[in-house]
Amino acid sequence: MLKSICKIGSSLHSVLEAISHEPIGIAFVVNVKGQLSGVLTDGDVRRLLLDGMAIDSVIEPQHLSDCISAPLGTPHSQLLKLSNQKVRIIPLLDDNGVPVDFFRYEHKTNFIPVAQPDLKGNELKYLTDAFLSTWISSRGEYIDRFESDFSNFCGVNHSITVANGTVALHLALKALGLGAGDEVIVPDLTFAATINAVIHAGATPVIVDVEEATWTICPNKIQEAITANTKVIIPVHVYGQPCDMERIMSIANEHQLYVIEDAAEAHGAEFNGRKVGSFGHISTFSFFANKIITTGEGGMCVTNDVALAEKMRTLRDHGMNASKRYWHDEVGFNYRMTNLQAAIGCAQLEKIEDILAERQNIEHKYKSILEHENVLWQKEIEGRKKTVWLVSILSDSRDSLADKLRQKGIDTRPFFFPLSAMDIYKPYCSKPCPVSSSLSVRGLNLPTYIGLGEVPDALKQAFQEA
Ligand SMILES: *Cc1c(COP(=O)(O)O)cnc(C)c1O
């Protein structure tokens, strides 16, 4: 069944909707009898809009582009001859001229990226709805809905949308009153945003090593790093692996410290049956395009503490008094998310269980194919349910493997460099971090996204040749 079909006389908006049903950037436009009249590409729609057509105006035959079509059953070799890099899609028609399928020309140098967002649910529908509502800034129903749906998903009381995962961390630190002289313990193996937010808050990061098996921050090392100035611990659930939240929370309670979980890479991961993000005093998420779910750019702070939630809402919005407009009690920020981004987020969240399951499947597939290869995986620990952000392996021949894969058109990503290896962060690390250094040179992230197809087989070949 062809899904990207629409009729002459329908609106440009419904053409866009039809286009979104297949990842080919084209809508097949049919007459009243269902016969193919022509096609409209996403580029055609853009041109029509630029020429002054409105999004709800109607498609007429003169708007359509001609296209090459072929009868259903045309041999593959002939379809290949008809197609080229410009004519990539050939609609296939039944005896009555009704489009029933299409042929797609695949360019030989197909490049497999590490990540790719899956936007085939209600994303375009909600985005268009938000757009047409004219609520395109940071108020609107999708903001409210995204926040309450996300609270339900994580099992927390309050969610506060923000512009990205980095400012989410900064907002959390400012809401906890962090500033000069305060120390914040962070893991050595993480994306730089974790430590940058601490430095921008005016506090002092203290870098500690991670564990060999889980790749997450080591509770013993946290304990050793605590001083009279320590105020916050930021455990990072790196590559989807939950940190040991039981020990970390008990260390924090013992020393009266705050915990901010950086869950940017771990939406849906669980520790002892509870979602990550529900343990810390505040937890943060990222919705960058390569994360588990996306809003393009975007982030979230979650908390069970109503006072912290109110504080973050105020600071997010210039520190403006909630009941007295244009009265400012604190020096705040503009860290708001737009309703357009939240619309995409709502559609992503609707299908997050499927996304998480599919990512698990992808990892299983990699695991079965690489069963006899000399690679190590992030350890599965009893009581912890990790999510698969990017499938991650450790290999002693990491760099040559990455080269082999690149030659086959498969992109990979080396692990983060240890923070302590970089000159700008070195001063914040007083003890060596041998574990993160050793993980960092061996670690490789493999392509992980919905619709990945047969990449793992190509990977096996590359392993055998490497
Ligand atoms: C991606 C990421 C962030 C930052 O998120 P952005 O939305 O890109 O600002 C923070 N921490 C970790 C661990 C991340 O992976």
Oligomer: single chain
Tell me the structural class: alpha/beta
Q: Can you give the mean pLDDT?
A: 93
Order of strands in the sheet with most strands: 7-15-14-11-10-8-9
State the distance separating the first and last CA atoms. 42 Å
Q: Give the names of the bound compounds.
A: pyridoxal-5'-phosphate
Please explain how this structure is put together.
The protein is an alpha/beta fold. Helices cover 33% and strands 17% of the residues. It has helices at 12-19, 42-50, 76-82, 123-132, 141-154, 165-175, 193-200, 219-225, 245-255, 306-316, 339-350, 352-369, 398-407, 434-442, 455-465; strands at residues 5-7, 26-30, 36-41, 70-71, 89-93, 99-104, 158-162, 183-187, 204-208, 230-233, 258-262, 270-271, 274-275, 282-286, 299-303, 376-377, 384-385, 391-394, 413-414, 443-446. The longest helix is centred in the C-terminal third of the chain and has 18 residues, at 352-369. The radius of gyration is 25 Å and the shape is globular. Bound molecules: pyridoxal-5'-phosphate. The site of pyridoxal-5'-phosphate has 14 residues, from helix 6 and helix 7.
Provide key terms for this protein.
binds pyridoxal-5'-phosphate; 20 strands; seven-stranded mixed sheet; single chain; 466 residues; four-stranded antiparallel sheet; alpha/beta
Q: In a few lines, what is going on in this structure?
A:
By secondary structure, the chain is of the alpha/beta class.
Layout: helices, strands, pairs:
Layout: E1 5-7, H1 12-19, E2 26-30, E3 36-41, H2 42-50, E4 70-71, H3 76-82, E5 89-93, E6 99-104, H4 123-132, H5 141-154, E7 158-162, H6 165-175, E8 183-187, H7 193-200, E9 204-208, H8 219-225, E10 230-233, H9 245-255, E11 258-262, E12 270-271, E13 274-275, E14 282-286, E15 299-303, H10 306-316, H11 339-350, H12 352-369, E16 376-377, E17 384-385, E18 391-394, H13 398-407, E19 413-414, H14 434-442, E20 443-446, H15 455-465
Parallel strand pairs: 1-2, 4-5, 8-9, 8-10, 10-11, 11-14
Antiparallel strand pairs: 2-3, 5-6, 7-15, 12-13, 12-17, 14-15, 16-18, 18-20, 19-20
This protein binds pyridoxal-5'-phosphate.
